[in-house]
Amino acid sequence: MNELTLIQPDDWHIHLRDGDALKTTVPHVAQHFARAIVMPNLTPPVTTVAGAEAYRQRILEQVPSGVNFEPLMVLYLTDHTDPAEIHLAAESTFVHAVKLYPAGATTNSASGLTDIANAYSVLEVMQEVGLPLLIHGEVTDSDIDVFDREATFIERTLRPLVEKFPKLRVVFEHITTREATEFVTAAPDHIAATITPQHLIYNRSDLLVGGIKPHRYCLPVLKRETHRLALVEAATSGNPKFFLGTDSAPHAKHTKESSCGCAGCYTAPHAMALYAQVFEAQGALDQLEAFASLNGPKFYNLKPNAHQIRLTKADQLIDQSFDFLGDQKLDPLMLGETLSWHAELIS
Ligand code: DOR
Ligand code: ZN
After folding, report:
1. 281 alpha carbon to ligand 2 midpoint, in Å?
2. Which of 90, 180, 303, 308 is most buried, most CB within 10 Å of its CB?
């Protein structure tokens, strides 16, 4: 197959940052995606509906003219989130979810939950009003190996959580393990997961063998090959519980190529080509539309997009490091490599 036309996709997990960073990140996401779930891990985090509304406006100001792009806003769950804020979120037209970061798990997670029990009254209301909980699923205990943090989170936190709140809608974000694919597959329909391009393409050897590749470093960290294979199987299976979420996360080049490098892969400009490559290798291009354009809207009770995107089999050299935050640079994942697909909006 050399050409593929899909309903325009959405990105169900992205980091756009704020301020001048939006000048780079917003045009990139809006190039191919009609909507995106925008993560709230700013400094300070987006914890209120009023804060989300103001952030949404700052994003919309950077959408290029003539382009349609709808940011879907998310509140950041803290130990002190007021259940009344959840009612406000549910009544709003633009807040679509609440994000749970265990405190200390990743970038800007210092205000995250220190104990899941601190959020029980909030989760009760979310369950009642049907607002999805998006979960960064890693324990932060220092005695748990970084490669085991997701699998441990499932047993210690996630399984008890979905038992305690049996109707709570949950997205297990950027899953990285076979255990996560099995958990989500066996769970009821209101439990879903996003999968990033980097976790479909790379395993941990790709991160570490022959020299550390800082631009492949993200959290949760890449796992061994058996897990990558389970993720590819889940993404390409047609199972509506699995959908596209890039976790595209910009960090300036010098902060990644550092003695204490930041976590995050910047994939927004090339995400559709990256996913197409994975689906083609699996002989599953016919499942790409479900993963990229149908399963996410279905979970979020939104309509699929009206426009279409065309994927063409054509070499695309990733040759551009982007301007970022004034005189800084932002390197996309796979800079200097050639992709075999090219994406463009057609209508
Ligand atoms: O690699 C990551 N980068 N994982 C996260 O969970 C956060 C993200 C970021 O904000 O940079
Ligand atoms: Zn993320």
Report:
1. 26
2. 180
